[in-house]
Amino acid sequence: GHRNADWKLTPSIRRGAVVGEEGIYVDLVREMRIQEFGRMLESTNRYRQWTSVHYDCPDKGVTWATGLYLDIRSLAQHFLIPTERLDFTNDVEVALFFACTKHVGSGRYRPLNEDDIRETPYGAIFQSLLFNCSHSEDFKGLSMIPVQPYVRPAMQSGFAYIGGEYDTDLGIVRHVFKHDVVFSRYICEKFGNGDALFKEEGAEWIEKQVDRILESRTFSKTAFVRACGHLGISRKESKRIQKELESHGNYRIGRNAYALSDSYISGLEPGWRLEDYMDEVGIGRHPNILRTAY
Fold it and tell me: For the segment 110-165, what is each residue's pLDDT rounded down to a tens digit?
């Protein structure tokens, strides 16, 4: 849902995109924010359990330990870090919430007032006619976000678009409507001004650190290297870019963008257990899925 019917389907990371040499630095900084977010989650108890699952079924001669898939980019998107993905939902009321309210920061929204509507009288709901239940970066269409150790994507009945041309590959149909103060108040209250879509017990600390990551001009070496790899920047070129960022861009590489130490993050939520979480989100426990030591 878009509050302004004239807005285009543009991923958050591409809004205000810069082209040319300067664009390389802008893209790299944006990618470092995503990688720093992922690196932060890698220190959590949830991450360790999520990615160290063992499946043991000796009667069938099957044993593996691949871990469950952690979709860092979809989690980053849902924690309001700009990515190349577009959020879709299979719940029309969720789409209407985002189309009929105004974001005031940190996942909080307010209803539209008469002044807002005079300025922007029409909103729009974009409907995709294509869907893919697999998760493949090569698929040119709408793909489902797999179950994650944080439920925010599920709270928003979230799907993610991950490739192709937005207006053509998705088979988009745009539904334009006129804003209404009464309905805006209703849909905003229905979702608790955003709390029902964003507030997750145990994830409050992430929101505070995300604010720091989005404002930071300091990034870890790991985030820098991963960002360069994601963007296809060679090692030689990355050294030149790092010098440019530090000498002219007032950025620093070598220290975390978030304030908490990795050891502190590791000790958060010591009581969180994968099996209990599976029950909570309704996917159930498989009798042959066992925890490894963590």
Answer: 999 999 999 999 999 998 876 655 445 555 556 778 788 898 888 888 877 766 55
Contact 165, 128 (CB under 8 A): no
Q: Which H, E and C letters describe 172-189, residue by residue?
A: EEEEEEECCHHHHHHHHH
Strand partners, 175: 125
Q: Which among 245, 220, 242 is positioned nearest to 233, based on CA atoms? A: 242
Q: Which residues contact 243 (CB under 8 A, 6 or more apart)?
A: none
Q: Which CA distances in Å does 139 have to 66, 166, 210?
A: 23, 13, 29
Name the residue among 230, 263, 204 with its Cα closest to residue 42: 263
- Backbone conformation region of residue 42, classed left if phi is above 0, alpha if psi is from -120 to 50, else beta: alpha
Cβ-Cβ contacts under 8 Å for 66 (sequence gap 6 or more): 53
| Most confident range, picked from 34-38, 245-249, 258-262 | 34-38
Q: Which helix (H) or strand (E) holds 143?
A: strand 142-144
**Strand 252-253 versus strand 218-219 pairing type:** parallel
